[in-house]
TrEMBL record:
Pfam families in the cross-refs: SGL
Name of the protein in question: SMP-30/Gluconolactonase/LRE-like region domain-containing protein
Domain SMP-30/Gluconolactonase/LRE-like region: start-end pairs: 15-258
Family recorded in the similarity comment: Belongs to the SMP-30/CGR1 family.
Catalytic residues of the enzyme: D198
Length: 300
């Protein structure tokens, strides 16, 4: 293993995903979709708390001091991490029984964007949704196969989005005040033997860091030119997502999976399903928390 890459949680997760850094608490939230687990890793204490849930969970974002928001199998939820009580907010797809939420995060205005996929992830049965600050849910993109990585440019003018099977990153013009996205254009195209683009994050220089599902690496890209700047091998076949964390936002946390792996592949990648940390020389954009404009928001 590269000396710059550290295994911080040997979780052996089936499908670790959705890493989210809580800057205030210096904690890493992540999920195991298949095992229906919300996990909370403390780098300071070197502990990984696991909260068992009753349905698959796609992603998590910070909200209040003891409350997180989740996008799950049956819609948007809040969870009190002290009591572990789930509260349902809204399900935009109650009629689509094979769909579940996948990746998501909050935009610079504190709206929670998350997208769905069906069992196979290739049927354009999913959509990208936005849980607005008034708790109303709005569909942003339709006919999505597997909704995955999402990021906003440091100047808040662009949204970048990955629908995994398309093998590309699409850039939208983004209005921070209204949340409107428009003018989609392809800015990054994945090559044939690179695996598939999965989760991603962005640094303060405006470069995208993309996880390669089936590609055993993380890559850094300039979305203005479509140029790949950096490639970092990861000791796992299925690299699922990444996010910046640590006291200076220079540590890149990487989630991986061990689903669909053969015995030979598991021998080659014994730490697949683990959470890795990479020390970088660039600073990431901070994770945004959900912002609820409703009076009495603390009762959500």
């Amino acid at each position: 293993m590269d000396s710059n890459i550290e295994l911080v949680v040997d979780a052996k997760a089936i499908l670790a995903e959705g890493p989210c850094w809580d800057e205030k608490k210096q904690l890493l939230y992540w999920v195991d979709i298949v095992e229906k687990q919300l996990c909370i890793f403390s780098p300071t204490a070197n502990t990984n708390r696991v909260i068992a849930l009753n349905q698959q969970i796609g992603c998590v974002v910070p909200y209040l001091d003891d409350v997180l928001l989740l996008a799950m199998e049956n819609g948007f939820y809040s969870i009190n991490v002290e009591t572990e009580k789930l509260t349902h907010i809204f399900d935009p797809e109650p009629h689509l029984f094979k769909n579940r939420f996948n990746d998501g995060k909050c935009d610079p205005a504190g709206r929670f964007w998350a997208g769905t996929t069906d069992t196979y992830g290739i049927n354009a049965a999913g959509s990208l949704y936005c849980l607005n600050n008034n708790l109303k849910v709005e569909k942003k993109v339709s006919h999505v196969n597997t909704s995955n990585g999402i990021a906003w440019s440091p100047d808040h003018t662009y949204l970048y989005y990955i629908d995994t099977p398309t093998k590309k990153v699409v850039r939208f013009h983004y209005d921070i005040c209204s949340g409107v996205i428009r003018n989609p254009s392809d800015v990054i195209i994945f090559h044939e033997n690179d695996g598939l683009p999965d989760g991603m994050t962005i640094d303060e220089e405006g470069c995208l860091w993309i996880a390669h599902w089936g590609g055993s690496k993380i890559t850094r890209w300039n979305p203005s030119t479509g140029e790949q700047i950096l490639s970092i091998p990861i000791p796992a076949l299925y690299v699922t997502s990444c996010t910046f964390g640590g006291p200076n936002l220079t540590d890149l946390y990487v989630t991986t999976a061990r689903t669909r792996m053969t015995d030979d592949e598991l021998k080659q990648y014994p730490h697949a399903g683990g959470i890795f940390r990479i020390q970088t020389n660039v600073k990431g954009c901070p994770t945004r928390s959900f912002c609820n404009n409703n009076i009495g928001a603390e009762t959500l």
